[in-house]
Amino acid sequence: MNRESRRVGFKTIFDLLKQKRTHLTLGVVFTLMPLGAGVILLSVFTMIDSDVPKVDYEQVNKNGQSTPATITKIVEQQNVTINDQHPSIISYKYSNGDKDIETQYRVLDPDKIRTLNVGDTIEVKYLSDSSIIPGLERFEFPIGFFLRILTPLLVIGLALLIFLYLRVRNEIDLYRRGEVRDAEIVSMTHTRGLPISGIGQGITVHYRYDTTRGQSILGESFTNDYSLLNSKKQGDLVKIFVSGDDESKSCLISKLDEVRNNWKIE
Fold first, then answer.
1. Do 178 and 242 contact (CB within 8 A), yes or no?
2. For 53-137, which CATH class?
3. For the chain, where do the domains classified as CATH 2.40.50 start and end?
4. Where are the transmembrane segments (predicted)?
């Protein structure tokens, strides 16, 4: 018996995964979509949030000191819309002991913003180098909200890919440790795959082989080795891998995989 472990390359494993086109397509889409969207949103929010310093509103409101400040600029961010409203960045300056500080504060409260003007004196609270405008809670982009939406999609995608791998794991194990046997071709059927990508495209081969106890088994295997259509016909012999633990489990040995993985099947 030939039970030594064989090398199985990534391309061979990927071809096995492509045979399960529905699971592979959904797994890839549900994994890459939230990852891509998450990276884009994180980049955009990080870039936009860099316009104003970060501050812990509750901490400064609780422990900060009050001081008057003068508004130097009010800018409405027209390129950002939240519930049909635009956030505004208020620039103001105040004295922190012996030094003057000018900083920015983003808020989403159009009604209160309309009551403020450049040059107005307002009360702020500061703690160290951080400051807030009491009564105007700092607005931060809701990246946590988007992550709560994207994370379940990512979990679904990863679960589909894991389930897909578990489905092909037995065949990978056959490639690595299966016994080489002869089988007789019963039929070969061409299977169309998905358009453009070609995922799922290949040949379904039905074959018959005998177990060590003389039982005749009808097996089925999928391959993308199209040379079979030209080199083999019904009744010809092909090589298969058969599980030494359960002889009802088998798979076809394609010439493409044999050469690709240097199996040297005799």
1. yes
2. mainly beta
3. 53-137
4. 24-48, 145-166
